[in-house]
Design brief:
Blueprint lengths: L1 E3 L6 E3 L10 E4 L6 E4 L55 H24 L1 H4 L6 H22 L1
Length: about 150
């Protein structure tokens, strides 16, 4: 069934089994409006069908005015909303560290491939052997520096 938020008018596709017969408190994931929804009393429920239904255009004289529904002053438990808001930006320290680890592994894999094929690649890159030798020496210095920290 399709449920319409009384505040912002956004439509939500909700499984009919999730709403009991006595109704349920809902929270809009778009505007955070909270309202009590009873599937027996609400007129704005549209059943999901695959048929195309012709819609009547409202007369210009009759304008529908939405009255905002007041928030209930009940205690709402976090996570009990039927429609939950998912933040678009969820970059965490764990993700940042995993990107760093993947970058390091990729860098080491490129070095191993270059070292494996350094003889055929030395025709294309004449100083490749010298660059790889300096890179290995730098890595060895970093490892010794890390050991000295302990």
């Amino acid at each position: 069934m399709i449920i319409v938020c009384p505040s912002c008018g956004k439509n939500f596709d909700v499984d009919e089994n999730l709403i009991p017969d006595k109704g349920r408190l809902l929270k809009c994931g778009s505007c955070n409006q909270t309202w009590f929804f009873n599937k027996n009393d609400n007129v704005e429920v549209k059943p999901l069908t695959n048929e195309v239904v012709a819609e009547e255009k409202p007369n210009n004289k009759e304008k529908k005015i939405r009255k905002p529904v007041s928030n209930f002053s009940t205690n709402i438990k976090k996570g009990s909303e039927l429609v939950k808001y998912q933040p678009k930006y969820n970059f965490t320290l764990g993700k940042f560290l995993s990107y760093i680890i993947v970058s390091i592994i990729t860098f080491i894999a490129i070095i191993i491939v270059l070292d494996t094929f350094k003889d055929p690649l030395s025709n294309v890159f004449p100083n490749l052997e010298l660059v790889l030798y300096n890179l290995f020496e730098t890595l060895r210095d970093l490892i010794l520096f890390a050991k000295d920290l302990n």
